[in-house]
Amino acid sequence: MFKNKISSLVLTALSLIPVGAAAQGFEVGGSPFAATLSCQNVKDVQQGYMMAHIMYNDLTPMLEDRTIERYIKSLDGTKIIFTKTDVETLKKDMKGIFADLGKKDCKKLYAAHKLYTQRLEERAAYVEKTLGKSFKFDKKTRLILDPEKREWASDAKQLQELQNKYLQFQV
Question: What is the pTM of this model?
């Protein structure tokens, strides 16, 4: 439980980084003051989490792996955006993210966001195409809703089949 908590805290810091190409910071609305979180100060936030945590004070390789896993899960918790290959690529490419953030280098996060955005655009285009006039509801469609009980789609074709089932479920 504590391992998940620290991964969640570090993940929160990672997910708040603005990853849009033109983004310069993240302004927290509705507060009496504006706060900005950018790549330049993620390390400070990360250190604050580590100092306040009961069990973990070091950014270990195990913690980094868990944080990367949770980050991917936060992007695609339903497993309908990424393929298994995408997930493996993200895990490999994000290795060393803690060291990079320590150097105020967020290239790996920007690359992950670029892939995520690309896959979202592909999914959205597929949905638009699929939900045309020829769409037919199929009462016999079966879908495993719990993403923990199914694997990542092995390829784009399997991902489309899964998305077809989701569309049937959502309609």
Answer: 0.73
In the structure encoding, which two tokens stand for residue 56, read together? 């973990």
Which amino acid makes up residue 60? T
pLDDT per residue as tens digits for the range 119-137: 999 999 988 888 888 888 8
Contacts 24+ apart (CB under 8 A), 55-58: 55/2, 55/3, 55/6, 56/2, 56/3, 56/6
Torsion (CA) 155, 14, 59, 152 in degrees, nearest 10 = -20
How far apart, in whole angstroms, are the C-alpha atoms of residue 168 and residue 22?
37
Amino acid symbol at 115: L
| Number of other residues whose CB lies within 10 A of the CB of residue 148 | 8
How far apart CA 102 and CA 45 sit, in angstroms, is 11
